[in-house]
Every structure is written in structure tokens, then in C-alpha cells.
Amino acid sequence: FLDEVCTINNPIMNGHYTPQQQVYYADQQIRVECNPGYELDRLSPVQTCQKNGTWSPLEIPRCLRSPCGEPPSIANAYLVNTTSSYAQYACIERYLLKDSISTIECKQGRWQNIRPQ
């Protein structure tokens, strides 16, 4: 007799799952990735398909809006990492960051520079 398969019935708002497949098998894991400016409502982004066809943890993960919203666009730079509290940038080729500041922080509802240590 075969194990049940898991499926994703609800698309995740403001985020997505990886890998994206039609069905998932027992012990297979998926990761939830939230869009920039959104944060996962839990510590672990991983869900695991159980032998009975349910996901563990059972609750559907949600991507919630960061209090600061989406990090600002910076000319000649791109986002390399973002959470609801921090955003980190890298420069495109042939550009350097002014003041060596590559990370900004969400404080009091606004994105602010972090001085390098």
C-alpha cells in the first residue's frame, strides 16, 4: 500500500513555495519564501509532507507585511537579503557603496541606515 501524497491547495499570499510541484511525497520538504517587504509569521520556513498526506506543521504559513513595507530601491544596487527588520544590498558591477553602508534596518516604522561596525 502506498503513502498518501501532499498537495498545496492554497497559494501563499505575498510569497511562494519552493520547489513547486503538483504533488509532494512523504518526508519531502518545501520552503516558504516571502516577497520583499513581507515576513513569515513563524521561525521555520520549512514544511514537511507526512505519510498521511498532511503537512507538518499543520497551520498554513502566512507572509505578513513588514511594518516598514518594501525596502527602497537604490540606484545601481540590488537587494540580496530582506526580512521585515533588515534589508541588505549589493552594488552592480563597477559601483561601490557610499559610506560602505550595505544594510538598512526597520526602526520606528521607517527604513534607516546602519553604520558599519
From TrEMBL:
Q: Where is the signal peptide?
A: none
State the InterPro entries in the record.
Answer: ComplSys_Reg/VirEntry_Med, Sushi/SCR/CCP_sf, Sushi_SCR_CCP_dom
Protein's name according to its UniProt entry: Sushi domain-containing protein
Q: Does the keyword Thylakoid apply?
A: no
List, for all copies, the residue spans of the domain called Sushi: 4-65, 66-117
Pfam families, from UniProt? Answer: Sushi
Against PANTHER family, the record matches this protein to: COMPLEMENT FACTOR H-RELATED (PTHR45785), COMPLEMENT FACTOR H-RELATED PROTEIN 1-RELATED (PTHR45785:SF12)
State any GO CC term. Answer: extracellular space
Q: Name one GO biological process term.
A: complement activation
Q: Can you provide one Gene Ontology molecular function annotated for this UniProt record?
A: complement component C3b binding
SS bond partners: 6-49
> What keywords were assigned to this record?
Disulfide bond, Signal, Sushi
Biological source species: Adineta steineri
